[in-house]
Design a protein that fits this description.
The complex is a heterodimer of chains A (about 775) and B (about 450). Chain A is an alpha/beta fold and about 775 residues long. Chain A is built from 23 helices and 33 strands. In chain B, helix 3 (about 40-50) runs parallel beside helix 10 and helix 9 (about 210-225) packs across helix 10 (about 225-230). The chains are: A alpha/beta (about 775), B alpha/beta (about 450).
C-alpha cells in the first residue's frame, strides 16, 4: 500500500494506482477528457494536469503513478492555471455552436468550460474546419468539434476489437477518421457516441429530435440478446427518444450493443398495432378488446369441445417476459393441454424431460475474466452476444486461451488459440475426439453411455484442444446458438457437458434471447404427452396462441412454420406489430405492449432475473401480455388467473425474488442432461449442408423494424457463402446466382466465397425476407446454378 | 585551438566510408579490445561515465548513466540509434553516416555488449535515403567480416543491427515516437514513465542514443574515458560536431573540442558572410533560445557555458544570423516549422504551436496588436512543460528567446506595421525569401 495525500486528504492506495484513480477513491474530481477507466491511458488532452510536490511541472493525473508519500494538489493555483491553459487551447478551435449541437447539455467540454474557460477568447484567428465523415447510419459526425481525445479510436481497438477509427495527419491537421471509404461497422459502434466528450460523434437516429434536459429517464432491461444489458430509456411525451446504457459492472459494464441502443426506433414505427384486429374473410377489422377476447375465448372453447385440449397449443418468443411466458403456459395447461414451447429455433428435442433445470451460462458474466481456458462450440458469439464477446475479448487479452469448434471462422476481434473448423454434421465427431483425448490425459473415463464411442483415429486439432483444456485451472465449455439449434443439439450438449466435467470446468449455454432462461424457469416447454414446436408444426393444431413471434422469421423451419400456421383453425397473434407475416396466418391480432411500455422480468444467460418498469405509456390500445392472458384466463374460466398486478404473476415463478431489480437466481439453473445418449459417428452424407446464423439485426420482431439498424453493414441481405474449394468442386464461382433447395423449399441467392467456412457447407442466414422461403436451419441443402 | 577531428578524422570525404578504410584508420580495434579482453559491462559503463560523454542528440544526458539504467540479466533488449536528425540547422549525423558509418556500427555493437542488447535499429530519416542505403551496405560489410551478427569475432557475443528509415516526420526524432515508428505505428511520443529503459521497443528494455554519441564510443574505448574527458572541459568531455549554417562564409560540419570559444568556431567557418555584423546566433538547433551577438561572442561551445548564457548546446547546430535579418521573420519561419511538425497528439502543442505561428505571422505582416507580445509570452508559457514530449517546449522556447533579446524589434514591428530592418537590407542579405505561408 502507498500513502498519498490529495488536496490534504490522506489515503492509502494500491501499488500501480494512478493519481486519477486515487483521486476518484478520495472523492476528488479532476477534470479530464481523454481519460476513461475502461480504456488505455493516452494522456493527450492534458486537462487533468495537477500539481505534485517536488515535481517541477504540472503532471497529468491520469498517467502519473502514485509514489509513496506523494502530495498532490488538484485545485491549487498552479494546477488550475495549467488546467485553464489547456481549456483555452481546447476551445480556440472548437466551434461556438452549442445551441445547435446535440451534445449540448450533456457535453463534458461545455460543462468544464464553465469552470475553467474564459468569457472572452484571446484567439482571433480563423478556426479549424474538419470535414465530416460518413460513419454509417448510426453515428453522426461534426468533426470540427473534435478535440482529438482519441477515446473513440481506443474504444474501437481495445473494446470493440476492430481498429475501425484512427487519427490521421499531423498536428493541427490531425483528424479522426475511418479507413477510406469504410464506415463504422462494429456491432458496438454506438458506444463511441457516449464516449465522445464533445459533440463530434452523436447519435444519427436521435439527431435534433430532443434536448437531453427535456427527456425523462427510466431504467430498463434490453429485450434482445441473452446478456440482459441495463438500459436508460429516455422518453418525451411518452415516446421513446433514445436509449443509453445504464452502468452495471456485473452485466454490460458501461456499454451497449448497437441493437440494444437503436432498436427503440421500432417502438415508434408505423407498424405498431394500435387496436385488436380480427380477420373477416380477407379483411382485417379493428375491434374492441371485448370483442377480440371473446372471439378468442369462443374459438378456444369450440376447439376444446370439438377436438379436445390437445388441439390447443401455444408458441412463444423467448424475447417475451417471464410474466407473459408464465401465464401463457399456465393458460394452456389450465385448458388441459401440454402443447407449449418457446424454443422456436430448436430442432432437437430428445432432451425434453431429461434435464434438471434451465440451461444457462453456469457462471456470472463478471467471472468470464477469470477463465484461463475456454472452449466455445457452435456459436456466432460476436454477433449473437456482442457484450459477452466483449468481455471475453478483455479476458483473452489478459491470458484466457480460447478454442473454438464451429463451422465458420468469423473474426471475433480476438485471437483464437485453436480452431476446429468443422461442418455441423461433424461436430459430434470432433467433440468425441476432444472428449476421449481429454479422458486419456486426465485418465478418467467418460460416462458409461459414451464409452463405446471412442474414435478409431486421432485428430490433431482435437487433441490440442483437449490438452489446452486439461492444462487449465479455471475452465469453461460453452455451447452457442448453432449447437443448441442443431439437429443433433442434444448430443452436442451432452458431449460438451462431459468435456467440461472431465476438464474440471464449468459448462454453459449462451442464451439465444433475453428471456431464454426465463422460458425454462416458467416451464414454457411441453410436459408429458405435450407437443414441442416441431410436432405442433408437423401435425397442426386447431388453435394456436402465438406470443411475440412471426412465422417465417422466428422458427427453425421457416417454410413449415408458415404453412402449418396458415392451416390452423385459429391463430391468435399476441403482438406489438401489425406484421405482414401475421396477417397471412392469424385470425386475430391482439396488440401487446413492448418492453418499454410494461413492467416485467427477463432472466439473462447467467440466471440473473431483472425486473423493470414501464418507461412510457402504452401505445394506442396495446396492453401488457400478462394482462391480456389473465383476462383470457378469466374468460375461459381457468383457475388461478386472479393476479392483481405483475408482481403477483412474477411471484408465482420467482417467489420472494419477484420484482427485484436484479437478483442472481440460485435454484432451477441446473441444465445437466440425464439419461441421454449419443448416436456416435454418422456416415457423412454426400450432400451440402446448411450453416445458418440469425444475423443480429434480424433476430427478433423489434430489431427487424429498426430502420437505422436495418441500414447497417450487419443487416445486409444474406448471400450464400461457400468455401472456395467446395465452390470450385461444384463448378460455381463467386457472384454466381444459385438456386438453393431444401425439400420443397426453394430460394435464389448470389454466392459468396468464404474460406473461413468448413467445406461442403452453405451458409445462409435466417430471418431475412430473402431467405424465409427456405427450410430448416440445419441439415442438407442443395445448390445449383440458375 | 582549431579543428580536433576524432569521428571525422582522416575520413577523406566520400571515398573513405567503406570497411577497409575504417579498418585502415584503426576501426573496430575498440570492439576487438572489448571482446578479446572480455571487458565486463560494468567496467565499460564505468569508462563511459568517466568520459562524461553527454548525449549528442540535444538533451545532453550522460551516456554512461543511461546505459546503466538497462536492467541486468537475460531477456530481449533493444538498442536504437536516433539518426532522425530533423531539427532545422542540424546536419552533423548526416556527415557521420556519410563519411564514417562504421564508427556508428562499432559504437552500437560495443553499447550492445555493455547493455546486453541483442538487437539494434538505426532509425535514419527519410530525406537522406542515399545514406540509409549506404548504411545498409556498411552493415553488410560488417556482417560479412564477422563484426556484426551471430558470434561476433568468433566470440559468444551476438548482436543484430538493422537500418530503418523514417518518412520525414520531425517528431519521430523524439525517442519514444521513434520507437512507435519502428513498431510500424504512427509516430507519436509515448507518455513517460515508463521510460524506454524499462519499457521501450515492443515493450522491452531499450536504450536510445544519438548517432554522434554512438560514433564517439569507439574513440572513448580506445583512448580511455579520462583522456576523452580531457579533450573538452570538466563535465563537458570530448569533441563535438558543430553544424554551422546561416550567414557564414563556409557553412558545414566542424568537429571541435568541447569548450572551444564561439569566436573560434565562427572564424573556422570563415566569419560572417560579406563581412557584415553578427546579429544573433541560435547555438543548438532551432529550438534553442537565440542569443544576441554580444552574449554569444563571450560563450564557449559546451553544455554548461551556453546553459549559463540562457540557451543550450542542443545538437550543436549553430545558426548564424547577420544584421540583415528581421528577427520577426526569422521567428515566423521557426514557428511555422513547429506548427507544421507538431504531431497533434496532445492539446497544448497541437493547438498552441499553430496559435504561436499565427500571432508571429500577423506581426510580421503588419497586423500585430498591442497585446500580442504579452499574448505570445503567455501562450508559449502555457505550452512549456505541459506536453507529452519536448516538441511543445521546442515550439515555445524560440518564441521566448526571441522575445527576451529582441522584444524591441517585435514592438517596433507592431507599432510601425513593418520591419525594423529596412527591406532593401533584408533583400541584400538573403537573395531569395520564400514566405512560409506560400
Amino acid at each position: 500500500m502507498l500513502e498519498i495525500e490529495i488536496d490534504g486528504k490522506a489515503l492509502q492506495v494500491n501499488e500501480g494506482c494512478t493519481v486519477m484513480e486515487a483521486a476518484n477513491l478520495a472523492g476528488v474530481y479532476i477534470p479530464h477528457f481523454c481519460y476513461h477507466r475502461k480504456l488505455s491511458i493516452a494522456a493527450n488532452c492534458r486537462m487533468c494536469l495537477v500539481q505534485v510536490e517536488k515535481a517541477p511541472k504540472a503532471l497529468p493525473a491520469c498517467a502519473t503513478p502514485v509514489t509513496n508519500g506523494m502530495k498532490v494538489w488538484t485545485h491549487s493555483e498552479n494546477a488550475v492555471r495549467a488546467q485553464k491553459a489547456v481549456m483555452e487551447f481546447l476551445l480556440i478551435n472548437h466551434p461556438l455552436d452549442c445551441p445547435i449541437c446535440d451534445q449540448g447539455g450533456e457535453c463534458q467540454l461545455q460543462d468544464l468550460s464553465v469552470g475553467y474557460g474564459c468569457g472572452q477568447s484571446r484567439y482571433g484567428e480563423e478556426k479549424r474546419v474538419v470535414f465530416n465523415k460518413d460513419l454509417g447510419p448510426l453515428v453522426a459526425t461534426d468533426m470540427t468539434r473534435c478535440i482529438n481525445c482519441t477515446r473513440c479510436v481506443r474504444f474501437m481497438q481495445e473494446i470493440a476489437g476492430d481498429m475501425e477509427l484512427g487519427q490521421a495527419y499531423r498536428g493541427e491537421h490531425a483528424e479522426i477518421m475511418p479507413f477510406l471509404g469504410r464506415t463504422l461497422d462494429s456491432e458496438l459502434s454506438g458506444n463511441v457516441i457516449d464516449l465522445c466528450p464533445v459533440g463530434a460523434l452523436t447519435s444519427r437516429p436521435f439527431r435534433f429530435s430532443a434536448r437531453t434536459w427535456e427527456l425523462s429517464r427510466r431504467r430498463s432491461v434490453s429485450p434482445h440478446d441473452g446478456v440482459g444489458a441495463n438500459l436508460i430509456v429516455q422518453t418525451r411525451f411518452d415516446r421513446v427518444k433514445r436509449v443509453l446504457p445504464l452502468e452495471n459492472e456485473a452485466i454490460n459494464e458501461c456499454w451497449l450493443s448497437d441493437k440494444d441502443r437503436f432498436s427503440y426506433e421500432a417502438l415508434n414505427g408505423d407498424e405498431r398495432l394500435s387496436a385488436p384486429m380480427i380477420r373477416r374473410g380477407t379483411q382485417w377489422c379493428e375491434v374492441s378488446w371485448q370483442e377480440a377476447l371473446e372471439f378468442v375465448a369462443n374459438g378456444c372453447k369450440a376447439a376444446l369441445d370439438q377436438q379436445g385440449p390437445a388441439a390447443i397449443g401455444a408458441l412463444a418468443s423467448p424475447h417475451s417476459t417471464l410474466e407473459e411466458l408464465h401465464l401463457l403456459q399456465k393458460l394452456v395447461r389450465a385448458l388441459g393441454s401440454e402443447n407449449i414451447d418457446f424454443r422456436l429455433r430448436h430442432s432437437d428435442f430428445r432432451a425434453d424431460g431429461k434435464r434438471n433445470g434451465a440451461p444457462c451460462l453456469g457462471m456470472p458474466l463478471a467471472q468470464v475474466s477469470h477463465l484461463d481456458r475456454l472452449l466455445v462450440i457452435g456459436s456466432f458469439l460476436r454477433k449473437d452476444a456482442p457484450l459477452l464477446a466483449q468481455r471475453l475479448r478483455q479476458a483473452v487479452k489478459k491470458g484466457t486461451r480460447l478454442s473454438v469448434v464451429h463451422p465458420a471462422a468469423d473474426d471475433w476481434g480476438m485471437p483464437v488459440h485453436q480452431r476446429a473448423l468443422v461442418a455441423p454434421s461433424a461436430m459430434v465427431d470432433t467433440l468425441l475426439h476432444i472428449l476421449f483425448a481429454l479422458a486419456d490425459i486426465k485418465q478418467t473415463p467418460p460416462q458409461p453411455v459414451l464409452q463405446s464411442l471412442r474414435p478409431a483415429s486421432q485428430d490433431a486439432t482435437a487433441t490440442d484442444i483437449a490438452r489446452e483444456l486439461a492444462e487449465g485451472r479455471n475452465v469453461a465449455v460453452w455451447i452457442g446458438n448453432l449447437a443448441v439449434q442443431d439437429v443433433r443439439g442434444t448430443e452436442i450438449e451432452l458431449l460438451a457437458q462431459e468435456i467440461a466435467r472431465l476438464a474440471g470446468g464449468r459448462f454453459g449455454v449462451i442464451s439465444e434471447a433475453a428471456n431464454t432462461v426465463g422460458g425454462w424457469l416458467t416451464r414454457a416447454v411441453p410436459g408429458a404427452g405435450g407437443k414441442n414446436v416441431h410436432q405442433m408444426l408437423e401435425s397442426p393444431l386447431a388453435v394456436c396462441l402465438l406470443l411475440g413471434a412471426e412465422p417465417g422469421y422466428d422458427f427453425a423451419r421457416s417454410d413449415a412454420s408458415r404453412r402449418a400456421l396458415a392451416a390452423m383453425q385459429m391463430v391468435v397473434a399476441l403482438t406489438p406489430f401489425n406484421s405482414g407475416e401475421l396477417r397471412e396466418v392469424a385470425h386475430v391480432m391482439l396488440p401487446l405492449t413492448p418492453f418499454t411500455e410494461m413492467a416485467g422480468t427477463f432472466v439473462n444467460m447467467e440466471g440473473r432475473a431483472q425486473f423493470f418498469h414501464a418507461a412510457a405509456r402504452a401505445f394506442g390500445e396495446a396492453r401488457p401480455g400478462w394482462k391480456v392472458l389473465r383476462v383470457l384466463g378469466n374468460l375461459l374460466e381457468a383457475p388461478g388467473f386472479a393476479q392483481d398486478n405483475v408482481l403477483d404473476v412474477a411471484r408465482e415463478v420467482l417467489g420472494e425474488h419477484a420484482g427485484k431489480a436484479e437478483v442472481l437466481l440460485e435454484t432451477g439453473l441446473d441444465g445437466r442432461l440425464q439419461g441421454v445418449s449419443v448416436e456416435g459417428r454418422r456416415p457423412r452424407a454426400d450432400t451440402l449442408e446448411r450453416v445458418c446464423d440469425v444475423p443480429l439485426h434480424f433476430a427478433d420482431p423489434l430489431v427487424r423494424r429498426a430502420p437505422a439498424l436495418q441500414r447497417t453493414h450487419d443487416a445486409r441481405a444474406p448471400q450464400a457463402a461457400v468455401h472456395p474449394e467446395t465452390l470450385a468442386r461444384l463448378g460455381l464461382e463467386e457472384g454466381a446466382h444459385v438456386r438453393l433447395t431444401q425439400g420443397d423449399a426453394v430460394i435464389e441467392l448470389d454466392v459468396r466465397a468464404d474460406d473461413g467456412l468448413a467445406q461442403n457447407c452453405v451458409r445462409v442466414a435466417a430471418a431475412h425476407a430473402s431467405t424465409i422461403g427456405l427450410g430448416a436451419m440445419s441439415g442438407p441443402i442443395a445448390m445449383e446454378r440458375v | 585551438m582549431s579543428l580536433r577531428p576524432l569521428i571525422l578524422a582522416n575520413t577523406n570525404g566520400d571515398a573513405g566510408w567503406r570497411l577497409e578504410h575504417y579498418l585502415a584508420r584503426g576501426g573496430y580495434s575498440a570492439l576487438k579490445k572489448v571482446i578479446a579482453g572480455k571487458v565486463s559491462p560494468e567496467d565499460l559503463i564505468a569508462e563511459m561515465k568517466a568520459s562524461v560523454l553527454r548525449g549528442r542528440g540535444g538533451a545532453g544526458f550522460p551516456t554512461g548513466l543511461k546505459w546503466s539504467f538497462m536492467p541486468k540479466g537475460e531477456g530481449e533488449k533493444y538498442l536504437c540509434c536516433n539518426s532522425d536528425e530533423g531539427e532545422p540547422g542540424t546536419f552533423k549525423d548526416r556527415d557521420i553516416l556519410r563519411y564514417n558509418p562504421h564508427a556508428v556500427i562499432e559504437g552500437m555493437t560495443i553499447a550492445a555488449w555493455a547493455t546486453g542488447a541483442t538487437r539494434g535499429y538505426n532509425y535514419i530519416h527519410g530525406e537522406i535515403f542515399e545514406l540509409y542505403e549506404r548504411f545498409e551496405e556498411a552493415l553488410q560489410e560488417a556482417r560479412n567480416a564477422g563484426l556484426l551478427g551471430a558470434r561476433i569475432l568468433g566470440s559468444d557475443f551476438s548482436f543484430e543491427l538493422f537500418a530503418h528509415h523514417g518518412y520525414g516526420a520531425y517528431v519521430c526524432g523524439e525517442e519514444t515516437a521513434l520507437l512507435e515508428s519502428i513498431e510500424g505505428k504512427k509516430g507519436q511520443p509515448r507518455f513517460k514513465p515508463p521510460f524506454p529503459a524499462n519499457c521501450g521497443l515492443y515493450g522491452k528494455p531499450t536504450t536510445i542514443n544519438n548517432t554522434e554519441t554512438f560514433a564517439s564510443v569507439p574513440f572513448i574505448i580506445n583512448m580511455g574515458g579520462q583522456a576523452y574527458l580531457d579533450l573538452g572541459k570538466p563535465n563537458n568531455g570530448g569533441t563535438k560536431l558543430f553544424s554551422i549554417s546561416g550567414h557564414v562564409n563556409r557553412p558545414g560540419v566542424y568537429e571541435l573540442e568541447m569548450g572551444t570559444p564561439f569566436a573560434e568556431l565562427l572564424e573556422l567557418a570563415g566569419g560572417v558572410r560579406g563581412g557584415r555584423k553578427l546579429k544573433a546566433v541560435i547555438p543548438g538547433g532551432s529550438s534553442a533560445p537565440v542569443l544576441p551577438a554580444e552574449i554569444i561572442m563571450d560563450c564557449t561551445m559546451d553544455y554548461d557555458s551556453l546553459s549559463a548564457a540562457g540557451s543550450m548546446l542542443g545538437s550543436g547546430a549553430v545558426i548564424v544570423m547577420d544584421e540583415t535579418v528581421c528577427m520577426v521573420k526569422a521567428l515566423e519561419r521557426l514557428s511555422y516549422f513547429y506548427h507544421e511538425e507538431s504531431c497533434g497528439q496532445c492539446t497544448p502543442c497541437r493547438e498552441g504551436s499553430g496559435w504561436l505561428y499565427r500571432i508571429v505571422h500577423r506581426i510580421e505582416n503588419g497586423q500585430g496588436r498591442e497585446e500580442d507580445l504579452e499574448l505570445l509570452e503567455s501562450v508559449a508559457g502555457n505550452i512549456m512543460g505541459r506536453t507529452v514530449c519536448a516538441l511543445g517546449d521546442a515550439a515555445a522556447m524560440p518564441v521566448r528567446g526571441f522575445l527576451k533579446h529582441f522584444q524591441s524589434e517585435f514592438a517596433w514591428h507592431i507599432e510601425h506595421k513593418g520591419c525594423l530592418v529596412p527591406l532593401d537590407v533584408q533583400r541584400a542579405g538573403s537573395q531569395i525569401y520564400v514566405s512560409p505561408s506560400c
